[in-house]
Amino acid sequence: MKIFIDTANLDEIRKALSWGIVDGVTTNPSLIKRAVDQLKKLKVRKIDIESYIKEICLAAGKERPVSLEVISLRAQEMIEEAELLYRKFNPLAGNVVIKIPINTYTRMGGVSHYEGLKAITHLSREEIPVNTTLIMSPEQALLAAKAGARYASPFAGRVDDYIRKKLGIQFRKQDYFDFDLMQKITKDKLTRFMDSSGERDAASLYLDENIKEWKDLGKDNGISSGVHLVEEIVNIYQNYRIKTEVIAASMRNGRQVREVALAGAHIATIPFNVMEEMIQHPKTVEGIETFSQDVVPEYRDLFEE
Ligand code: E4P
Atom 10 of ligand 1 has which residue's CA nearest to it? Predict the structure, then answer.
Protein backbone atom coordinates (compact mmCIF):
# COMPACT_ATOMS: atom_id res chain seq x y z
CA MET A 1 0.00 0.00 0.00
CA LYS A 2 1.27 3.43 -0.90
CA ILE A 3 1.30 6.14 1.76
CA PHE A 4 0.38 9.74 1.01
CA ILE A 5 0.67 12.51 3.56
CA ASP A 6 -2.59 14.35 4.17
CA THR A 7 -1.42 17.88 4.90
CA ALA A 8 -0.56 21.23 3.32
CA ASN A 9 2.05 21.97 5.96
CA LEU A 10 5.41 22.12 4.17
CA ASP A 11 7.41 21.33 7.31
CA GLU A 12 5.37 18.19 7.91
CA ILE A 13 5.73 17.19 4.25
CA ARG A 14 9.50 17.68 4.34
CA LYS A 15 9.88 15.78 7.62
CA ALA A 16 7.81 12.81 6.44
CA LEU A 17 9.65 12.78 3.10
CA SER A 18 12.95 12.57 4.98
CA TRP A 19 11.70 9.34 6.64
CA GLY A 20 11.46 7.80 3.17
CA ILE A 21 7.89 6.56 3.47
CA VAL A 22 5.85 9.11 1.53
CA ASP A 23 4.53 8.37 -1.97
CA GLY A 24 2.37 11.46 -2.45
CA VAL A 25 0.61 14.43 -0.88
CA THR A 26 -3.08 15.32 -0.55
CA THR A 27 -4.39 18.76 0.33
CA ASN A 28 -7.83 20.34 0.55
CA PRO A 29 -9.07 23.88 1.32
CA SER A 30 -9.29 23.11 5.07
CA LEU A 31 -5.72 21.80 5.14
CA ILE A 32 -4.52 24.88 3.21
CA LYS A 33 -6.36 27.06 5.78
CA ARG A 34 -4.60 25.21 8.60
CA ALA A 35 -1.21 25.77 6.92
CA VAL A 36 -1.96 29.47 6.36
CA ASP A 37 -3.07 29.88 10.01
CA GLN A 38 0.18 28.25 11.09
CA LEU A 39 2.21 30.67 8.94
CA LYS A 40 0.28 33.58 10.45
CA LYS A 41 1.08 32.28 13.91
CA LEU A 42 4.74 32.22 12.92
CA LYS A 43 4.27 35.88 11.96
CA VAL A 44 5.10 35.37 8.29
CA ARG A 45 4.36 38.87 6.98
CA LYS A 46 3.02 38.23 3.51
CA ILE A 47 1.74 34.78 2.71
CA ASP A 48 2.31 33.94 -0.94
CA ILE A 49 0.19 30.81 -1.33
CA GLU A 50 1.22 30.29 -4.94
CA SER A 51 4.92 30.05 -4.07
CA TYR A 52 4.05 27.92 -1.06
CA ILE A 53 2.17 25.37 -3.21
CA LYS A 54 5.01 25.44 -5.73
CA GLU A 55 7.37 24.46 -2.93
CA ILE A 56 5.08 21.58 -1.99
CA CYS A 57 5.09 20.30 -5.58
CA LEU A 58 8.86 20.61 -5.83
CA ALA A 59 9.45 18.98 -2.44
CA ALA A 60 7.29 16.01 -3.46
CA GLY A 61 9.11 15.63 -6.78
CA LYS A 62 8.03 13.98 -9.97
CA GLU A 63 7.27 10.50 -8.66
CA ARG A 64 4.87 11.69 -5.98
CA PRO A 65 1.42 13.02 -6.89
CA VAL A 66 0.21 16.18 -5.15
CA SER A 67 -3.59 16.61 -5.00
CA LEU A 68 -4.89 20.19 -5.21
CA GLU A 69 -8.60 20.88 -4.87
CA VAL A 70 -10.91 23.18 -6.83
CA ILE A 71 -13.25 25.54 -4.96
CA SER A 72 -16.27 26.09 -7.24
CA LEU A 73 -19.46 24.05 -7.35
CA ARG A 74 -20.47 24.14 -11.01
CA ALA A 75 -18.84 21.85 -13.57
CA GLN A 76 -17.64 24.55 -15.96
CA GLU A 77 -16.06 26.59 -13.17
CA MET A 78 -14.44 23.52 -11.63
CA ILE A 79 -12.99 22.61 -15.03
CA GLU A 80 -11.56 26.11 -15.48
CA GLU A 81 -10.06 26.06 -11.98
CA ALA A 82 -8.63 22.59 -12.54
CA GLU A 83 -7.01 23.66 -15.80
CA LEU A 84 -5.57 26.73 -14.12
CA LEU A 85 -4.14 24.74 -11.20
CA TYR A 86 -2.71 22.22 -13.65
CA ARG A 87 -1.15 24.92 -15.85
CA LYS A 88 0.34 26.74 -12.87
CA PHE A 89 1.75 23.86 -10.88
CA ASN A 90 2.12 20.77 -13.05
CA PRO A 91 5.07 22.03 -15.14
CA LEU A 92 7.22 22.15 -11.96
CA ALA A 93 7.41 18.41 -11.30
CA GLY A 94 4.67 16.86 -13.44
CA ASN A 95 2.93 15.58 -10.31
CA VAL A 96 -0.33 17.55 -10.00
CA VAL A 97 -3.62 15.75 -9.50
CA ILE A 98 -6.86 17.68 -9.33
CA LYS A 99 -9.31 17.00 -6.54
CA ILE A 100 -12.96 17.18 -7.58
CA PRO A 101 -15.79 16.49 -5.12
CA ILE A 102 -18.07 13.67 -6.23
CA ASN A 103 -21.17 15.84 -5.72
CA THR A 104 -21.11 19.57 -5.12
CA TYR A 105 -24.85 20.02 -4.73
CA THR A 106 -25.52 22.30 -1.79
CA ARG A 107 -28.35 24.52 -0.66
CA MET A 108 -26.25 27.57 -1.48
CA GLY A 109 -24.90 26.68 -4.87
CA GLY A 110 -26.76 23.55 -5.93
CA VAL A 111 -27.56 23.19 -9.59
CA SER A 112 -27.54 19.46 -10.19
CA HIS A 113 -26.06 16.52 -8.38
CA TYR A 114 -23.89 15.74 -11.41
CA GLU A 115 -21.58 18.77 -11.60
CA GLY A 116 -18.70 16.80 -10.06
CA LEU A 117 -19.15 13.89 -12.45
CA LYS A 118 -19.31 16.22 -15.45
CA ALA A 119 -16.06 17.88 -14.39
CA ILE A 120 -14.35 14.52 -13.75
CA THR A 121 -15.40 13.22 -17.17
CA HIS A 122 -14.18 16.35 -18.94
CA LEU A 123 -10.82 16.52 -17.14
CA SER A 124 -10.17 12.80 -17.53
CA ARG A 125 -10.72 13.09 -21.28
CA GLU A 126 -8.17 15.91 -21.28
CA GLU A 127 -5.84 13.53 -19.43
CA ILE A 128 -5.73 15.70 -16.35
CA PRO A 129 -5.60 13.20 -13.49
CA VAL A 130 -8.48 13.50 -11.03
CA ASN A 131 -8.73 12.47 -7.40
CA THR A 132 -12.45 12.26 -6.60
CA THR A 133 -12.98 13.51 -3.10
CA LEU A 134 -15.72 13.31 -0.44
CA ILE A 135 -16.73 9.77 -1.40
CA MET A 136 -19.02 8.34 1.28
CA SER A 137 -20.58 5.33 -0.48
CA PRO A 138 -19.50 2.52 -2.82
CA GLU A 139 -22.05 3.76 -5.36
CA GLN A 140 -20.32 7.14 -5.53
CA ALA A 141 -16.97 5.39 -5.98
CA LEU A 142 -18.36 3.35 -8.86
CA LEU A 143 -19.60 6.50 -10.58
CA ALA A 144 -16.26 8.27 -10.07
CA ALA A 145 -14.47 5.36 -11.74
CA LYS A 146 -16.95 5.30 -14.63
CA ALA A 147 -16.27 9.01 -15.18
CA GLY A 148 -12.55 8.21 -15.54
CA ALA A 149 -11.09 9.34 -12.21
CA ARG A 150 -7.49 8.27 -11.58
CA TYR A 151 -8.16 8.08 -7.83
CA ALA A 152 -11.22 7.70 -5.58
CA SER A 153 -10.99 8.93 -2.02
CA PRO A 154 -13.47 7.34 0.41
CA PHE A 155 -13.53 9.37 3.63
CA ALA A 156 -13.36 6.49 6.08
CA GLY A 157 -13.00 8.63 9.21
CA ARG A 158 -15.95 10.87 8.39
CA VAL A 159 -18.17 7.85 7.79
CA ASP A 160 -17.06 6.52 11.18
CA ASP A 161 -17.87 9.88 12.76
CA TYR A 162 -21.32 9.82 11.15
CA ILE A 163 -22.12 6.30 12.39
CA ARG A 164 -20.71 6.90 15.87
CA LYS A 165 -22.71 10.11 16.16
CA LYS A 166 -25.91 8.37 15.06
CA LEU A 167 -25.31 5.82 17.81
CA GLY A 168 -25.06 8.66 20.33
CA ILE A 169 -21.50 7.65 21.23
CA GLN A 170 -19.15 10.28 22.63
CA PHE A 171 -15.78 10.20 20.91
CA ARG A 172 -12.68 12.17 20.16
CA LYS A 173 -11.77 12.38 16.48
CA GLN A 174 -8.66 10.22 16.83
CA ASP A 175 -10.28 7.47 18.97
CA TYR A 176 -10.38 3.94 17.58
CA PHE A 177 -13.93 2.59 17.66
CA ASP A 178 -14.64 -1.13 17.50
CA PHE A 179 -17.28 -1.38 14.75
CA ASP A 180 -17.05 -5.19 14.75
CA LEU A 181 -18.03 -5.26 18.39
CA MET A 182 -20.93 -2.90 17.64
CA GLN A 183 -22.16 -5.30 14.94
CA LYS A 184 -21.97 -8.20 17.41
CA ILE A 185 -23.97 -6.23 19.98
CA THR A 186 -26.59 -5.41 17.35
CA LYS A 187 -26.82 -9.01 16.14
CA ASP A 188 -27.16 -10.26 19.67
CA LYS A 189 -29.97 -7.80 20.44
CA LEU A 190 -31.76 -8.80 17.27
CA THR A 191 -31.42 -12.53 17.97
CA ARG A 192 -32.72 -12.16 21.52
CA PHE A 193 -35.71 -10.13 20.36
CA MET A 194 -36.56 -12.65 17.64
CA ASP A 195 -36.17 -15.56 20.04
CA SER A 196 -38.67 -13.94 22.40
CA SER A 197 -41.12 -13.05 19.63
CA GLY A 198 -42.78 -16.45 19.57
CA GLU A 199 -44.27 -17.93 16.46
CA ARG A 200 -44.76 -14.73 14.45
CA ASP A 201 -44.74 -14.99 10.69
CA ALA A 202 -41.76 -13.74 8.67
CA ALA A 203 -43.56 -10.69 7.24
CA SER A 204 -44.55 -9.30 10.63
CA LEU A 205 -41.03 -9.85 11.97
CA TYR A 206 -39.52 -8.20 8.87
CA LEU A 207 -41.76 -5.16 9.33
CA ASP A 208 -41.33 -4.94 13.10
CA GLU A 209 -40.08 -1.44 14.01
CA ASN A 210 -37.63 -2.77 16.63
CA ILE A 211 -36.10 -5.19 14.18
CA LYS A 212 -35.84 -2.51 11.51
CA GLU A 213 -34.11 -0.19 13.96
CA TRP A 214 -31.65 -2.78 15.31
CA LYS A 215 -30.86 -4.10 11.85
CA ASP A 216 -29.66 -0.64 10.83
CA LEU A 217 -28.06 0.26 14.14
CA GLY A 218 -24.45 1.25 13.65
CA LYS A 219 -24.76 1.33 9.87
CA ASP A 220 -25.05 3.86 7.08
CA ASN A 221 -27.14 2.30 4.32
CA GLY A 222 -25.52 -1.09 4.89
CA ILE A 223 -22.03 0.30 5.52
CA SER A 224 -20.89 -0.51 9.03
CA SER A 225 -17.67 1.55 9.17
CA GLY A 226 -15.24 3.61 7.12
CA VAL A 227 -13.04 0.54 6.72
CA HIS A 228 -16.05 -1.43 5.48
CA LEU A 229 -16.66 1.34 2.93
CA VAL A 230 -13.08 1.04 1.66
CA GLU A 231 -13.36 -2.76 1.54
CA GLU A 232 -16.53 -2.65 -0.55
CA ILE A 233 -15.03 -0.19 -3.03
CA VAL A 234 -11.88 -2.30 -3.40
CA ASN A 235 -14.08 -5.38 -4.04
CA ILE A 236 -16.20 -3.64 -6.64
CA TYR A 237 -13.14 -2.32 -8.46
CA GLN A 238 -11.56 -5.78 -8.39
CA ASN A 239 -14.74 -7.39 -9.77
CA TYR A 240 -14.51 -5.28 -12.90
CA ARG A 241 -10.74 -4.77 -13.08
CA ILE A 242 -11.27 -1.05 -12.70
CA LYS A 243 -7.98 0.86 -12.79
CA THR A 244 -9.02 3.73 -10.51
CA GLU A 245 -6.93 3.58 -7.34
CA VAL A 246 -8.57 3.73 -3.92
CA ILE A 247 -7.12 6.31 -1.55
CA ALA A 248 -8.40 5.58 1.96
CA ALA A 249 -8.79 9.12 3.28
CA SER A 250 -9.80 10.83 6.49
CA MET A 251 -7.61 8.52 8.56
CA ARG A 252 -8.04 8.90 12.29
CA ASN A 253 -5.56 6.48 13.89
CA GLY A 254 -2.93 3.84 13.19
CA ARG A 255 -5.25 0.90 13.65
CA GLN A 256 -7.59 2.26 11.01
CA VAL A 257 -4.61 2.49 8.64
CA ARG A 258 -3.86 -1.17 9.38
CA GLU A 259 -7.46 -2.10 8.64
CA VAL A 260 -7.62 -0.24 5.30
CA ALA A 261 -4.34 -1.94 4.34
CA LEU A 262 -5.94 -5.31 5.13
CA ALA A 263 -8.99 -4.24 3.11
CA GLY A 264 -6.74 -3.80 0.07
CA ALA A 265 -6.69 0.00 -0.31
CA HIS A 266 -4.08 0.97 -2.90
CA ILE A 267 -3.16 4.08 -0.93
CA ALA A 268 -3.87 5.58 2.48
CA THR A 269 -3.53 9.31 2.92
CA ILE A 270 -2.44 9.89 6.49
CA PRO A 271 -2.18 13.04 8.63
CA PHE A 272 1.18 13.77 10.23
CA ASN A 273 -0.03 13.07 13.80
CA VAL A 274 -1.31 9.62 12.77
CA MET A 275 2.05 8.85 11.12
CA GLU A 276 3.74 9.76 14.42
CA GLU A 277 1.35 7.47 16.30
CA MET A 278 1.97 4.57 13.88
CA ILE A 279 5.67 4.27 14.72
CA GLN A 280 5.18 3.99 18.47
CA HIS A 281 4.81 1.01 20.80
CA PRO A 282 5.73 0.85 24.51
CA LYS A 283 7.46 -2.53 24.13
CA THR A 284 9.73 -1.05 21.43
CA VAL A 285 10.71 1.70 23.88
CA GLU A 286 11.32 -0.85 26.60
CA GLY A 287 13.27 -3.09 24.23
CA ILE A 288 15.59 -0.33 23.08
CA GLU A 289 16.28 0.66 26.68
CA THR A 290 17.25 -2.90 27.57
CA PHE A 291 19.42 -3.32 24.47
CA SER A 292 21.21 -0.04 25.27
CA GLN A 293 21.87 -1.11 28.88
CA ASP A 294 23.12 -4.53 27.79
CA VAL A 295 25.86 -3.29 25.47
CA VAL A 296 29.05 -4.80 26.92
CA PRO A 297 32.42 -3.02 26.32
CA GLU A 298 33.59 -5.92 24.13
CA TYR A 299 30.66 -5.32 21.81
CA ARG A 300 31.08 -1.52 21.91
CA ASP A 301 34.74 -1.95 20.86
CA LEU A 302 33.52 -3.49 17.61
CA PHE A 303 32.26 -0.08 16.50
CA GLU A 304 35.57 1.70 17.09
CA GLU A 305 37.85 2.09 14.06
C1 E4P B 1 -8.15 13.55 1.85
O2 E4P B 1 -7.93 13.68 0.67
C3 E4P B 1 -8.88 14.51 2.68
O4 E4P B 1 -8.36 15.77 2.43
C5 E4P B 1 -8.76 14.23 4.14
O6 E4P B 1 -8.38 12.90 4.35
C7 E4P B 1 -9.94 14.63 4.96
O8 E4P B 1 -9.74 14.25 6.29
P9 E4P B 1 -10.64 14.75 7.51
O10 E4P B 1 -11.93 14.03 7.46
O11 E4P B 1 -9.86 14.39 8.73
O12 E4P B 1 -10.81 16.23 7.32
Answer: 250
